[in-house]
Structure to design on (239 residues):
């Protein structure tokens, strides 16, 4: 989805679950049954148990590739920290994934960590250090925010010092690090597979979150979706 900010993050907050479901039924009349079935199927595999943080990525194609991987693995939330570098999705790389994944922009890493901690996340920095936890051994029993650093220098010291833990992807070659988008894809594949296989992790979105997400998705496939959705909301209020 487009960047989640103050202009759109609370669009459906005042609606009950039942009201959201009725609003979605009205919106679904405006796009194909195939798309509706796709939304119903994919929303069941969306998760916020794992999210991604990108610190000051300066090559938009790398950040966009991470968004694409998040969409493919069902990870709904990406947090982009813009210390110096502004991020805008590269559509040639993201392949439309920015329409389906929520991404949030933050001015600095500490504010990002504070918000994630308030939401119950354990912040895990990805590092190639010798003694860090292997990705296959990372405890994922509680929500995890996986942090990736900029292409050349990696994470800032501030991001490292304030993280709750550290993880690495095993490497057996001469090269000392993966490309950030490759590292993110490998990490997300490993963690989401483990998450789905675990029987004691409640990783799926709540009914309320699923209903809200489908409303946002509907806005992406309806022409002038925001205006149309606001019109439907106004009709509902009058009725």
């Amino acid at each position: 989805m487009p960047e989640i900010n103050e202009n759109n993050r609370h669009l459906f907050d005042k609606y009950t679950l039942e009201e959201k479901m009725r609003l979605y039924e009205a919106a679904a009349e405006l796009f194909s049954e195939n798309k509706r079935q796709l939304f119903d199927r994919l929303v069941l595999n969306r998760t916020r148990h794992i999210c991604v943080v990108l610190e000051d990525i300066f090559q938009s194609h790398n950040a966009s590739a991470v968004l694409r991987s998040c969409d493919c693995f069902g990870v709904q939330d990406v947090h982009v920290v813009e210390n110096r570098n502004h991020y805008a999705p590269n559509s040639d790389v993201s392949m439309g994934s920015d329409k389906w994944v929520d991404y949030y922009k933050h001015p600095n890493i500490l504010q990002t960590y504070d918000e994630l901690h308030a939401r119950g996340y354990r912040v895990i920095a990805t590092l190639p250090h010798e003694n860090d936890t292997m990705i296959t051994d990372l405890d994922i029993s509680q929500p995890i925010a996986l942090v990736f650093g900029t292409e050349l220098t990696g994470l800032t010291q501030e991001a490292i010092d304030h993280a709750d833990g550290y993880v690495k992807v095993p490497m057996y070659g001469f090269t000392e690090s993966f490309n950030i988008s490759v590292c993110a894809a490998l990490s997300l594949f490993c963690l989401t597979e483990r998450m789905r296989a675990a029987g004691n992790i409640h990783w799926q979105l709540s009914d309320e979150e699923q209903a809200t997400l489908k409303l946002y998705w509907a806005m992406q496939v309806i022409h002038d979706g925001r205006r149309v959705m606001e019109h439907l909301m106004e009709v509902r209020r009058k009725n």
